[in-house]
Structure formats: C-alpha cells, structure tokens
Amino acid sequence: MWKRIYALFVARNTEFIRDRSSLGWNLVLPVLMIFVFSYAFTNENPEKFKVGVIGDTQASEASTMFTATRFIKFVEFENTVDSLGKVERHQVDLLFDANSYRYWINQTSPNGYIVEKLLIAAFANAPQRLIKNLVEGDEVRYLDWVMPGIIAMNIMWSALFGIGYVIVRYRKFGVLKRLRATPVSAMEFLTAHIMSRLWLVVAENTLIYVGMDYFVNFRMLGSYLDLLIVFMLGCICLICCGLVIAARISSEEVANGLLNLLSWPMMFLSGIWFSLEGAHPWMQKFALVLPLTHVTAAAREIMIDGAGLMQVADHLVILGITSMVLLVIGAWIFRWE
Length: 337
Fold this sequence. Notes:
Layout: H1 2-18, H2 20-40, E1 49-54, H3 61-67, E2 72-76, H4 84-88, E3 94-97, E4 102-106, H5 110-122, E5 131-135, H6 142-172, H7 175-180, H8 186-216, H9 224-246, H10 252-269, H11 281-287, H12 291-305, H13 313-333
Parallel strand pairs: 1-2, 1-3, 4-5
Antiparallel strand pairs: 3-4
Helix pairs in contact: 1-8, 2-6, 2-8, 6-8, 6-9, 6-10, 6-12, 8-9, 9-12, 9-13, 12-13
C-alpha cells in the first residue's frame, strides 16, 4: 500500500514543481501583499479612535455625552478580563467601565492619551469621579498582526485549489479512470495527494516566512514548532475541504465556482485583514465555523502573545475534528469517473 502511495506522492510533486507558473504565483503573491501592507499601513490616521465600553453607557449624562463623541468607534465588552489584553496591544485605545466609572489606558498609546482627555472633559461637571488605571504593553504593528493571516490565506488558496481543481481535472481527462484499473484505492489516492500538497504548502510558506522575516523582522514571541503545527493542521483541514468539493465534480467551471464560494467568505470573514470586534454578532458566530478563522487566531496568539499549544488547544481540536469528518466524507462520496 505504501509503495503505491509513495508513487502517487512523487508523481504529484513532480507535476507541481514543473508547473512554474503555479509555483511562482504561490511564492510571489504573499510577498507582494506583505510589502504592500507594510507600507500602506505604516502610519494610521490619528483621527480614528477605538474605545471599549463595559456596562450601561446611558446610566449617566456624562457617559452618554462621551459615547456621543464623533470619530470614536465604541465597542462593547462583557468584562475587563477579555478586553484588557486589547488595551495592552493598542487594539483598543481606552477601556471604560460605565458602571464603576473606571477606565484603563496604555500609557504608551498616543491615541489613548487623546481619548482620555475627551473622557475627562465629558465628566468635568459630573458628580461621578473617574478612576484611572494604567496597563503596560508593546504596540503591535499592523504588519505583525496581519502577517499570520496572510500566511494562512496563502495556505488556503494552495490547499483548496491545489487539491480540488487538480482532482477535477484528473477526472475530466480520464486520469482517475485509468488509476481505477490499478490496485490503488480511493483512500490511498487521497492520502497521497494530502501528503504531497501538505509538504509543498508548508515548504513554500516556510520559505516565504523566513525570507520576509529577514527584511521585515516579524514579531514572534512563541515557539516556531508550535506555529508549524498550527499551520500544518490548518493546511490538512483546508485540503480536506477541497477534497469534499472535488469528490464527485467533473466540471472545472463548477469546481472553480464552488472553491471561490468557499474561499472568498473565509478571506474576508476570518479576521485576516481586520478585527471582527464590533461586527454584527451573527457575523462573529459564522466566522467561528470557518477553518481559516481558527488557523489565523491560533497563529496570532502564538506569534503576538507567545501562547503555547495548550493555550490554542481549542482551535486545534476544532481543526482536527473538522479534518477527520471532511476526510471521511470525501473518501465516502469519492468517485473515479
């Protein structure tokens, strides 16, 4: 069995490497995107602020006046435990508790300093007295924040189209029909393609990361091994998504449409380009269904916060279960012709 899997594995690798246009596109696209975002978002507009609020902001006149301030986006949080980290990382300029009139600010945040002045001005004539709390934390560049998502997105495109589109093309041109006459089983064929795509995607994205880190110096507080495990498990999950789509389809046009239907929502709703804080609740819940959300979130926690595998275990469990379910479904509904 393993000899047949290895033969298919080598054949698929050779086919991909010889396709220089696909190989070049997978290497060049994320590099271009990282350079664009490193320059486009170096200086943010200082007139845009984000304030986290806890409790009923309509309970006092001063709180209502403050939340009516223009050019400030107010994001509701349930408690301080989940939101103080965002103040530390400069993702939120200030955190205000409308029930206890306490507020938290990062003393190294220029935006936080300005928002604090606006908050103090709103309570200047109010009977309530504000209680100031300082937090510490380094500012995270937008490039550092977006980079895990870019790598995850590149993995998604390579995994989905590298598996889904290729298998459909094999079926269309009769390659699968010929393989059916051999002793190769559907599970062996799918396993070989998963292994081939997995190492190719991980290898090319590792090369991209190392090369770009030399020039940009990404923030990396966690373990490189943990990060590799996250990306590998995410890659397997996304490959299995492509397998399910390509299991029975014989039209390249239909496969292309379905793969785009799956990939584009993940690209915009998985938190790659912007945080979903403040988004509609249904959008946040829908994002949790997408595998790319968990890959991006786990990678960010490792790179930016220095988290270990235990801290991102919830994301890994979801990716692992999803992979197994999709692989079983893909093998079950797979057809050679």
